[in-house]
Amino acid sequence: MNGAARLTERIGGPVGAHARPWGLWFNPLPWSILVAGLSWVVLMLRQVPCQQHVYGTTVNTYARLCYSDIPLLYQGNGVATGAGLYSEAGLTHPPLVGALVAVCRWLTGLFGADVGASATGQEQLDASYLFFVLTAVVLFVSFLAVVVVQAELGAGSASWATQGVATRSFDALLVAAAPVVMASGLINWDMLAVALVGLGVLAWARCRPLVAGVALGAAFSTKFFPVLVLVALALVCRRGARMGAWRACLGGFAAAWALINAPLLLTDPHGWSLYWSSSIGRGADLGSLWYVFELMGLRVPGVNAVCLLLMAAALCAIALLVRRAPRRPRTAQVILLVLIAFAVCTKAYAPQCALWLLPFVVMARPRVFDWAVWNIAELVYFFAVWGFLDGVLGPGTGADALYWGATLLRIGVQLWLAAQVCHDVLNPWDDPVRVGHVDDLTGGVLDHAVDAVPPPVPQAPPVPPTPLPAAGHDGCPR
């Protein structure tokens, strides 16, 4: 008896043969939205201790575990006084994040805050909180989009084996109740990128590769990681002989990215390049294996080149896995493997980067145990990094090894999760999603597609023919 069956024993048992599995109780969407709202309320309440009320009186956001870049960006470099975001304030974020900052700053002024050169320090501080709340509303809508997308992607899981209930739609609750959201959802603007990637994956699942490319191109205009989703799609499309759909996705991706980036690139090339130059020019930073090595006194020379080489090797290994698997891997499985490879190899990994993985952890490996272990590891790192920045676990304190351990734990759990996914890929009969006639809920054109390259079947050595016994004159064996 599996875990789900044991759990249902306590709430009445599995669905009976004459049950009617529809109605509110069997619709995960309202429950998922409710849980998502409660999670966001917890997140907002966590931010209250970090609200600074008096200008000049700082709040230790590290010790209170509620640090956020959002209000600090508003108060710094002239953003609060109406300075140009890229030309004067030197914003180091991609254009779509800059557009969101500009809109929220405009709304801040519309709601009565003084957004101009005449604003005093206290007025800028008060306006920063309004700016933060407006941004939080946008990011909450983004989070709801992620949850709804998760429920929609599971709608195709209803089969004879599940008695008509779309069981995978209930996985949206694992996204809605994820502790990593309550911990890191408002550190930065990452939730916007996660929502756009989710919409792209949903469009791909609905066999609209061009629309999927547009959504992923917009997401790439907020963060770097969405381009990795495009790479993962190429790997599974190559196995499933659907490269035409991938090229359509690539066209939409390039068009959307160019359309969003062109205005800033043409009017302020230097401002546009700030995000890329700051990302490329930074050394090993918080959360990475390379930063732990530096803290140990083992500086890795040429960390950019090392990261690129390791990432290339990881992609080659994933491509080989996709090609050699006995059954074409599910799209979400390959996306998660590519994202984990990036998270392990990259030279910086902020706590909010866990949001990138969350939807695909649930899609690729919808097991509560795996989900819980991964969330716990991310939370351990969440607490450790703020203790490190606060100085409690800083270098020379004697407790800095705890930060090293938290970083290594996070990386180790990510590798363990990748190993679980690889097991499912190599043993598709163990895949928790492929039940009944379900193939690839996020595959779109790949769902139930015939492989272009059939998996290799090991050939047994030829068996020599057994010699027949000699026959006598009567034709009978001697």
From TrEMBL:
Region listing for Disordered, in residue ranges: 456-478
Family: Belongs to the glycosyltransferase 87 family.
Keyword entries, A-Z: Cell membrane, Membrane, Transferase, Transmembrane, Transmembrane helix
Keyword Transmembrane helix among UniProt keywords: yes
Protein name, entry field: PF09594 family protein
Predominant location category: membrane
Record-linked InterPro entries: GT87
A Gene Ontology term for the protein's cellular component: plasma membrane
Annotated localization: Cell membrane
Record-annotated membrane-spanning stretches: 29-45, 129-151, 172-205, 211-236, 248-266, 302-322, 334-359, 371-389
Keyword Cell membrane: yes
GO MF term list: hexosyltransferase activity
Topological category with respect to the lipid bilayer: Multi-pass membrane protein
